Amino acid sequence: MEAFFIPTLIVALAEIGDKTQLLALVLAARYRKPWPIILGILVATLANHFAAGALGSWVAGLFSPQTLTWLLAGSFAAVALWTLIPDKLDDDEGNTAKNFGPFVATLIAFFMAEMGDKTQVATVMLAAQYDAFVLVILGTTVGMLLANVPVVLIGNFAAERLPLDLIRRLAAAAFGLLALYAAYEAWTMGAVATAAA
């Protein structure tokens, strides 16, 4: 059971204060439907961590660390722009798009936000360390839920009092800063490689 509990603890601790908690708060305030958001987090995390555990080392071999960091910077910039776009779903409860809106938005946003994140890297390393692939993936997923579900529930209950525009702008700014930081890291990798050559 160590292959379950250690990944759970590592990911739960790593996620505290992470960008995905901010994303969970924004989604909870925007949609005010916690269960589709929680389900979206679950499915996105399972898919992301499964891919990380199964294909992480193979993908890392295809690109240089600098290229991977540039891709990460582009992903953060895309999420920053997406965060600024207000929700325009119809208020009709019978509308199928609205029924699936929070789930699909959460699924895409969380999957993208976890690309190249420290918990994805941790999942790759933990899957390599333990000979219990399924337990590692379940553990990292439970850790993600432990860190983000309370944020979704709190954000849902406090949504009436939250300044949604301010939250959207702050989230976009945070993702923008992450994009700039990743771009700086990629540029630094290139400068170091050039100086060494």
From TrEMBL:
Transmembrane parts of this sequence: 37-61, 67-85, 97-113, 133-154, 166-184
In terms of InterPro entries, this protein maps to: GDT1-like
A Pfam family per the record = GDT1
**What's the main place this protein lives?**
membrane
List cellular component terms (GO): membrane
UniProt key word Phosphoprotein: no
Among its keywords, does the record have Transmembrane helix?
yes
Molecular function (GO) terms for this protein are: metal ion transmembrane transporter activity
State the annotated membrane topology for this chain: Multi-pass membrane protein
State its location(s): Membrane
Record keywords: Membrane, Transmembrane, Transmembrane helix
Top-level taxon in the UniProt lineage: Bacteria
| Signal peptide location | none
Q: Which family does it belong to?
A: Belongs to the GDT1 family.
- What this protein is called in its record is GDT1 family protein
